[in-house]
Amino acid sequence: MKRELHELIEIDEKVKSKLDFIKSSSGSALENVNKVKALKNIIYEKSSKTFIYNLKKLIKLEATQKDLAKKIGVSEDLLSKYKSGEAFPSIETLIYICEIYGISMEKLILLPLTTIDIENMENSLDADFNVFEENYYAYFLVTNIARGGAIHEGVVEILNKDVVFKILANGEVIKCFSGRYSISDKLISFNLYSQSEGTACISMIKPNVNKERYFGGLNMLMLPSDANSKPCVQKLLLSKIRIDRELYYSSLKELLNFNAEGLPLGHVKISQWEDEAAYNFTSKLL
């Protein structure tokens, strides 16, 4: 992208030089149609290359070319042609892109997007991301050996980006962590802290914004264990509705257990299908 940016700077200097010449020329000089046409061609080249440069920035912002094509309402094949310079968007597509990302037409086709521009867009997208309800129930396995196999219940309260995670016992709060969540391309991270217990982190697959509200899913939880406050990583189920732990014990334990079938673990992660299975389980309880 550095080479492309350098080319844009050279073209921009060429355009400015020729425009200054025409602006300072007499009326008779402007009658040279070929010179005007040549300048217009250079301006088009500048617009086209600038748009391609900015388009690549937007693809990175949206994570994939497919995601951007879907967002601006064109086929992936047409977007590829935009990216290669084989085609240039219609005026309505350009206006739509400007409206979606909150930028001017000049910024889109005449000025290369800067890091600050992209950060502002990311902040704007994050601000629009609002699929969470205010309260969720949380379930995860007890780590205390004496109570092995039992399932903890807790609540997660979300207001804007502020988060409170409460672990319950017999309906009473026994641990409480608070903090905020942050959004990346594919993940949401809850960074929480308790003065007495230390830190807790929850990492989840970014919910599908096409769903009106996040109903539930499977996440990764890291916090000190009950037994001796050693670091512990385990699965965490979030659910909009409260789940009867006795009635659905087998299903909950199956969702919350790590299964390796005797194989050594190089790493542990939550897969998309596990998250969908958890969502389907919670949604069927309605």
TrEMBL record:
PROSITE patterns listed in its UniProt record: HTH_CROC1
Pfam families according to UniProt: HTH_3
Stated name of the protein: Transcriptional regulator with XRE-family HTH domain
Organism the protein comes from: Clostridium punense
Superkingdom assignment: Bacteria
UniProt domain HTH cro/C1-type: residue ranges: 64-108
